[in-house]
Amino acid sequence: MLSKVYSCCFFGMDGYCVEIETFISNGLPSCQIVGLPDAAVNESKERVRSAIKNSGMEFPLKRITVNMAPADIRKEGAFYDLPIAVGILLSSGQVEPAFPMEDTAIIGELSLGGEVKKVKGILTMAIALKEMGFSRIILPRDNAEEASIVENMEIIGIKSLDEAVEYLKAPEKYKQPKKSEHPPEAPGAELDLSDVRGQENAKRALEIAAAGMHNIILIGPPGSGKTMLARRLPTILPDLKEEQALEVTKIYSIAGKLEGKSIIRVPPFRAPHHTISAASLVGGGTIPRPGEISLAHQGVLFLDELPEFSRRVLEALRQPVENEVITVSRVNATFSFPAKFLLAASANPCPCGYYGDHTRECRCSPRDIQKYFGRISGPLMDRIDLQVEISRVPVQDLDRRKGGATSAEVKERVIRAREIQYNRLKGKGLLYNSQLSIKDIEQNCRVSARAMDFLNSTYRRLGLSARGYVKVLKVARTIADLEEKGGVEVEDIAEALQYRITS
Ligand SMILES: Nc1ncnc2c1ncn2[C@@H]1O[C@H](COP(=O)(O)OP(=O)(O)OP(=O)(O)O)[C@@H](O)[C@H]1O
Ligand SMILES: [Mg+2]
Predict the structure, then answer these.
(1) Which domain, by its residues, includes 141?
(2) Is residue 226 part of a domain?
(3) Residue 349 CB less than 6 A away from ligand 1
(4) Pocket flag, ligand 1, residue 232 (CB < 6 Å)
(5) How remote is the CA of residue 228 from the centroid of ligand 1, in Å?
(6) What is the pLDDT of residues 102-147, one digit of tens each?
């Protein structure tokens, strides 16, 4: 008998429907899976055989042919176990579904004992299946919460092959598991900007970075609080908007890093160690998976001690920082993952760390310093809008028990500035000032004539590069937004000019 079951797979950020036909005929006992299966699909045969037997059903001793279509998509991963097992049970007449199965998709990996195990990328697949017109998905119970974000889709979370069979026979008996309530996430609630004493200049720069999603680098001697400051950046970032939250959740679903959360609303914060490889940073692998830059999408990628990262890693970062997306090419396909993140970095001013410090003498030669910074200068530094030099906090400031504004206060200002940008840039599909091009700036920045004159004369005097010129305008626009001003004034340009060391 012939049966047809639908399942799903995903590549990059997109899901595709997979049709699984099973035909059982008389002949020597065999089981063949055709349609470009990879090793995981072939291994699936053994799991399916064992799971069916251990669930008290019969694995037919006949000639079984399983065809997976379309044949031109490479089918990786183990999530076809469950649909293949169901196909065999339907074809051998052991199960008769109580409803037509055209609008039902089945996804799940089986253990030898017949339990259904959690899989990656459920959210991506559920969204794609809905777009294709499916109305019901049978999937692992542990993935049910993740899939339930998709509206108007019946999500059937099951724990074992047995349960799947019971559901197919009598769907009315199935009880929807209760949705667990998640307390609102509070990222590093124990951290607050007011923990950092002094450093008002750096805190202000962080506020501007958060408001306009400008990349920022903090340069200063050891122990001046660079790491401390950067780790507090997430506490002043507004929650994600609905559309972004879904996109971020999709990335985490594909990476298998949702950790029980149903939807991610808090901007992610990723701080990979400087020994990270280029592939883990930007994403890759034979089946491409999102890297750290995509996991930081709509949030912060913090690279502590930037010059310690290998040159290859920093080179790999250039393209996504500019394009907000990372494209990975493989023999048979090209995958893209979004990567719009705020790059926050820290660096010592020289290898020993004390260049420019008043308390200790720097032991580095000019050549050492040049070599140290040579790694990050140039194209990457060019893409960092805010370059902030910080010095050690004087003892009296540390002592004063005065931390300045709290994260909550700053966050409120950031939220207002974001709303202003959002309303101004809506029509262009942009969200932040950092995304503005020179043309957008002309149309949107409303720079007063005096401010423009001031910038032009400074440009000539300081020999700013063209990129530096645009950077100053973008940052000045964010500063004006934080003050809720319609136009950019001289003082906004003047402040923006402070946040540059190179170009
Ligand atoms: N401005 C500050 N306010 C309060 N504590 C501070 C400040 N600066 C430094 N500290 C203290 O010093 C410690 C070290 O700071 P942090 O790790 O942020 O320095 P760093 O600039 O990243 O140094 P390194 O270059 O060595 O990584 C902090 O854990 C904190 O206890
Ligand atoms: Mg540090």
Answers:
(1) 2-173
(2) yes
(3) no
(4) no
(5) 6
(6) 999 999 999 999 999 999 889 999 999 999 999 999 999 988 988 9
